[in-house]
Design brief:
The chain is mostly helical. The chain contains 13 helices and no strands. Helix content is 78%, strand content 0%. This is Etoposide-induced protein 2.4 homolog.
Length: 320
């Protein structure tokens, strides 16, 4: 295979990933319509009253997605925007009109911002993260059950817990790795590498719900990300760009929570473009080694946690 053909296949996989991730709204609308049609075809549903039919016009999938958008965009993000771009400027004009000196206003502004953040933003942000985690899981499960049926459970509860904890550690370390590479002296290189890291991480976030329901263990999930990296780079790119608009971590977190449910549905319906590149991108290799070391010291040395390879997740592909 020539270099030009490889390059074309990589570009196609990236473009297809971008396209698939952008179809979240349409995929959700399609799934919602199909779920409603299935409900209407059941005997119990046909015998229900018109009142009950109206109350169930929207499926649980659509309701929870809209609830996520309402909580994170309509309430949380809106309150921050109103405070920063309306309340503070109005107060600033009032203070200026009253003849208060600039230093006093700057001190008052900082105090108001700190109070607003401590009393409203931080508690609501933490609460929304907890609620979002539950809603994200419900959205993923609803979409999966309709498209693929009953989820495949892991052999034991202990293995499920170990896989979850190890995955959480790997993702946290990978996020830290993304932050570190963004600090490289060569500015364009650091920014590009950080964007690649975040795109792959967001793809892992979105697809992990489906893969977990399919019974895939962590090493298989990471292997698939590493070997099919062009597609997942494209899939996570829109979310990476969208959550980099603001310099505020809180606002970017709100944007992520608003958009992420649509990406979960897109991931559930996506058909990954496979074998677009013969060279895996082994970015997870350092964090897997560190995670294995941490788990082995914590829970003993009876094997690698969650079956992950300490050298590279992509090595699993070479063995299969």
């Amino acid at each position: 295979m020539g270099t030009v053909e490889i390059f074309q296949r990589i570009l196609y996989a990236i473009a297809r990933g971008i396209y698939d991730s952008s179809m979240g709204f349409f995929n959700l609308a399609h799934l919602d319509k199909k779920i409603q049609e299935r409900e209407l075809q059941t005997p119990v549903r046909r015998q229900s009253s018109k009142k009950n039919e109206k109350s169930a016009e929207k499926s649980n999938l659509m309701q929870q997605t809209l609830q996520c958008c309402t909580l994170n965009g309509g309430i949380f993000l809106f309150s921050i925007v109103v405070f920063d771009f309306f309340i503070l400027p109005v107060l600033g004009e009032i203070v200026k009109f009253l003849g208060t000196d600039r230093e006093t206003w700057l001190w008052t502004k900082s105090l108001l911002s700190w109070t607003f953040g401590a009393v409203w933003v931080l508690p609501i942000f933490l609460l929304s993260k907890l609620i979002n985690a539950l809603w994200f899981q419900d959205i993923a499960n609803s979409a999966y059950r309709y498209s693929r049926g009953r989820p495949v459970m892991m052999p034991s509860l202990s293995k499920t817990v170990a896989d979850f904890l190890f995955s959480l550690l790997v993702q946290s370390l990978f996020l830290l790795q993304a932050m570190l590479v963004s600090m490289l002296p060569l500015h364009p290189l650091g920014s590009v590498l950080s964007m690649i890291h975040m795109s792959l991480l967001y793809s892992l976030y979105a697809f992990e719900y489906k893969w977990f329901n399919m019974g895939w263990e962590l090493h298989k999930r990471l292997t698939f990300i590493e070997t099919q990296w062009p597609y997942f780079l494209g899939f996570g790119l829109p979310l990476t760009i969208s959550t980099s608009i603001s310099t505020s971590f809180i606002i970017n977190g709100c944007l992520f929570s608003i958009l992420f449910p649509w990406f979960i549905v897109s991931a559930n319906e996506a058909q990954v473009v496979a074998n677009s590149c013969d060279y895996p991108m082994q970015l997870f290799m350092p964090v897997i080694a560190i995670s294995n070391l941490a788990f082995n010291k914590t829970v003993g040395t009876g094997g690698n946690a969650a079956g992950a390879n300490p050298t590279t997740a992509a090595a699993r592909v070479q063995k299969s």
